[in-house]
Every structure is written in C-alpha cells, then in structure tokens.
Write a structure and sequence with these properties.
The chain is an alpha/beta fold and 272 residues long. The protein contains twelve helices and ten strands. It folds into two domains: 224 residues, P-loop containing nucleotide triphosphate hydrolases (Rossmann fold, 3-Layer(aba) Sandwich); 40 residues, no CATH class. A six-stranded mixed β-sheet has the order 6-7-8-3-9-10, with helices on both faces. The protein has a four-stranded antiparallel β-sheet with strand order 2-1-4-5, with helices on one face. The radius of gyration is 19 Å and the shape is globular. The structure holds adenosine-5'-diphosphate and magnesium ion (MG). Magnesium ion binds next to helix 1.
Length: 272
C-alpha cells in the first residue's frame, strides 16, 4: 500500500532523512521507533506532504505521490495524526471533527459530514457527549482521541500516527493502543511512530528503528522486542554484562510482557 524508496528530506540546510526504504501493507501496523530527534516526525511529514521529498519515491497503491500536495494525498486516503495532537482549542469538538473532513466538504456536504461525525463518535463515545463543548476543555487523553477521530473523518486507508501515547496515563495509552489494533482489524494500514517502543513493538506486525535519519534495523515487532540491542537502547532494560544480568533482563522482559498482556488483550498474538 505504501512503498518508500531512497527517500531523503530535511529542513533548509539540514539534511535529516537519508535513503529511507520502508513499506506498509494493508491491515498492517508498522512501528517506527527511535530516540527523540531521530527523524520519525520528519518522515511522517514527508509522507503526508507537509515537507517535500528531496530524493527518492513515495508510492501509494502503486502510484507516485511524492509530488502531490498534502490535500491531494488526503483525498487518496492518507490521514495524519500529528505529534502534539494540534487540535484547535478555541473551536468546538464538532468543528475540529469537521475540519478533518475539510478536503471532502464539497462532496460530503453538511449532512455527509454529520454522518461521518456520528460514525467516528461510535469509536469515541466520550467525544459524542462533548461535541458542542470547546476542544480546549478536553483532557489530554480526550484531545488525543479527538486528534485520531479527526483523522478518521476521511475514512483513511493509511493512518500516520505520530506519538499518540505521549503524555497519557497507562490506562489511556492502553485504550488508544486497543483502538489502533481495532483499526488494523478493519483493514487499515497504520504507521505508528512512538518513543514508547515497548508498547508499539508489542502490537506491531513489523517495525523499523530510525537512528540519525536512517533505518538502522527492521524486523517483526515481537522479534525486535526480543533483541538485546533493542532492549538496551530502547526499552530501558540496561546492559547485560553477565549471565546473571542476562537472566535478570530476561525476567524483567517476561514480567513486562505479562504486564502488557494484561493491558492489551491479544497483544501476545498480534505481533506475528
Ligand atoms: N522545523 C524544523 N527545522 C529544522 N530542523 C528540524 C525541524 N524539525 C525537526 N528538525 C530536526 O530534524 C531532526 C529530526 O527531528 P524529528 O523528525 O522531529 O525527530 P523525531 O520525531 O524522531 O523526534 C532533529 O535533528 C530536529 O532537530
Ligand atoms: Mg517526533
């Protein structure tokens, strides 16, 4: 569905992404993990068209999209949930949702937009109770839900999620991750950028590790979760310097996995 080859991008003099090769298939969650500043947001922006590609190709359903305007990419079915949510606090929840369908507002009309709102609110009942309230009065978790709901207004086939768990409580993170898995089960392709590598690897079918603007590693989500170098660098497990240390790290990974299984029913089997 999404195929990226030899992609480079950056800002002014700063080259940030170098020779990125990445793909996402229909019904697949692909996680992008990497430290702060690695280039995850830059990649999401280049896919959605907010930032131009400098070299390489981005294909969506077989056709080149790297020269298309952001709005044209939205019309093809690519929606982005930006880092930091970027909802408009001074508008109502309903108006924020309507903005999500802006690219389609001619063809949908008022009634069509209302119908889409009802549709996305079924996924987020908490939003339907607050449609006429100001978006600025929502909690952090509700604002993240609004940002996702807004992206779903165009019924995307590819969803770019940039750090959806940032700043949320574990319960809310669990809720958001369950929703992401539900969207996958409906056939959506999802590119999930996260510093919370443990959670995202646990639900991802495949994952890429981004380091200094390059793909440093890739593999199945569960497989990367088990690699010692990933544990050390991205899961905060610490360096395994002896057998005893190894066992303790193993133990800790097992306990983490058990904890995850409790908050994410199905997480254990979802990563294959
Ligand atoms: N608007 C910008 N102008 C210049 N440099 C930027 C801009 N946004 C990000 N960068 C730089 O690009 C690099 C990658 O940033 P980013 O894509 O935000 O990383 P991540 O999302 O992985 O944390 C960093 O070095 C960052 O400082
Ligand atoms: Mg980022």
């Amino acid at each position: 569905m999404l195929e990226i080859s030899n992609l480079s991008a950056g800002y002014g003099e700063a080259a940030v992404l170098h020779g990125i090769e990445l793909s996402v298939a229909k019904g697949e969650i692909v996680a992008l993990i990497g430290a702060n500043g690695a280039g995850k947001t830059t990649l999401a922006k280049t896919i959605s068209g907010l930032l131009p590609a400098r070299t390489g190709e981005i294909r969506f359903e077989g056709a080149r999209i790297d020269r298309l305007r952001p709005r044209e990419r939205v019309l093809l079915g690519i929606a982005q949930v930006p880092e930091g949510r970027q909802i408009i606090a001074g508008l109502t929840v309903a108006d924020n949702l309507a903005l999500g369908a802006y690219a389609r507002h001619r063809s949908l009309g008022e009634a069509g937009i209302k119908a889409r709102m009802d549709e996305v609110c079924r996924l987020f009942p908490v939003l339907s109770e607050r449609l006429l309230g100001s978006a600025g009065n929502l909690s952090g978790g509700q604002q993240q839900m609004l940002a996702i709901a807004r992206a779903l207004m165009i019924r995307p086939t590819l969803l770019l999620l940039d750090e959806p768990s940032l700043g949320l409580s574990p319960t809310l993170v669990g809720e958001i991750f369950r929703l992401i898995q539900r969207l996958r089960s409906e056939g959506m392709a999802i590119l999930l950028s996260e510093q919370n590598a443990r959670m995202s690897l646990a639900i991802a079918d495949r994952a890429y590790v981004v380091e200094m603007g390059r793909i440093a590693m890739k593999g199945a989500g569960q497989e990367l979760l088990g690699r010692p170098e990933i544990a050390e660098r991205y899961l905060g497990v610490g360096q395994a310097v002896s057998d005893q240390h190894d066992r303790r790290a193993e133990d800790r990974r097992a306990r983490l996995a058990a904890g995850l299984a409790r908050i994410l029913p199905g997480a254990g089997s979802a990563g294959g």
